[in-house]
Design goal:
heterodimer, A: 146 residues, mainly alpha, globular, B: 396 residues, 5-stranded parallel β-sheet, two-stranded antiparallel ribbon, 16 helices, Small ribosomal subunit protein mS29 (chain B), structural constituent of ribosome (chain B), ribonucleoprotein (chain B)
Amino acid sequence: MMMKGGNKVLARSLMTQTLEAVKRKQFEKFHAAASEEQANIERNPYTIFHQALKNCEPVIGLAPILKGGRFYQVPVPLSDRRRRFLAMKWMITECREKKHRRMLMPEKLSKELLEAFHNQGPVVKRKHDLHKMAEANRALAHYRWW
Amino acid sequence: MLKGVASLVSRVRKLDPGHLRLGTQAPQSLAAQLDNQVSFESPRAISCTNENDPAKHEEKHEGLHYNLPLQDVKTVFPHGLPPRYAMQMKTFNEACLMVRKPALELLHYLKNTNFAHPAIRYVLYGEKGTGKTLSLCHIIHFCAKQDWLILHIPDAHLWVKNCRDLLQSTYNKQRFDQPLEASVWLKNFKTTNERFLSQIKIQEKYVWNKRESIEKGSSLGEVVEQGITRVRNATDAVGIVLKELKRQSSLGIFRLLVAVDGVNALWGRTTLKREDKSPIAPEELALIHNLRKMVRNDWNGGAIVLTLSQTGSLFKPRNACLPQELLGKEGFDALDPFIPIQVANYSPKEFESCIQYYMENSWLQHEKAHTEEGKKELLFLSNGNPGQLERLCAYL
């Protein structure tokens, strides 16, 4: 999803720069913190990346179902891979659209990943909004036939 | 046993985290003690050494990192170190340089220079990313400690490209001035060499314009101040500084080190154009003209250390790294009797030492990086090239 026009070299370099940015930010925090908190600060960029994406995965999704001429948004369980796909997609679109014009992708992505790791930030908020919509439309769950 | 030593060292570092700078002394002294014990066991050695004075670096320190005090870094390198190295310094909160063979060779030559003979030119050359600029920084630190006057141009390529304003020179109608770059350089020159500026007196009268002039016998500090405040005359101020330093270094009051990085910029082409879009040759830039005079060896009382660089160079192919290719015929003839020093990739011992240094700072976070196969992979991927290794380890 990071790749555009098949430019894998660029996508790969953006990802490595993001991981480096995450690592450097965590090192700054580590050196600035007192000794008790140092054990809690995670410095491995890979664990931060995986944990952040896991925190962004929605549990339940909405599907538009046609009944009686109207489309209803029905809460529906999502498969594992659909959840992972949605987490990654939300993360990338968030970084592409909602940033300052001159901010580079690795910078913005590293910021979003760190916020998602701590369960804050806009991507996790989007997941919660989806959950709330699903909760609100609970009554329509009977429209699902699979 | 070695694993125990490594974990002991890392545990000691974790114990005093608040005093990270002092904390480096504890594992280093531990390391120095254990060094004697473990050195015969296997080629893996602990990577830092206690010897922080470049004058005392010997063959036995080869491959070990030494610590540069951050205060020194601010005075000796105000122009800035290479950007990736500066980022690493910021992240680790310390500046550590590795002692390598080319730098040791140069230090040996510098220690045995005869100051009555004309200044010898040393040219550091090598493939991209092998450590030429950092070797130059090592030499500059040594000379600063020995109290030489340092004339450091961090990257000559910055003077021949991307210049915003070019003024026609007041001194010579054919040449062009670069006020911004000249004033920035003068500011940094002042930070490095504060104490010499009041001691050196100029020996000629210079007239800036109808109303201002500098009398004979006033100090060099005033010329530098004039250049910094009056940006239009900054390039001429630089020219005066260079001329006076060259003339007076033979007298023996001070020793002069001319250190230029990317010296192939002086003889290549520029990307700057006049208003009628015709290209400018390097000779027509006043800064470059004065620098070329500086690099000629018709003065004595110091040394000239130069570095070739393909990275910032203009109109040169990517794989050009030898002096003849990068300097061109004109440059090579101008620099002709010089001592070439090749800077190569890491030897296995240096590679091991570098990895150890990263592990001590816990820079390699990936689990597989700590294993033997991980190290072999890193060696293969980077081919021992220090620049590539640094970029690889950045995201691991």
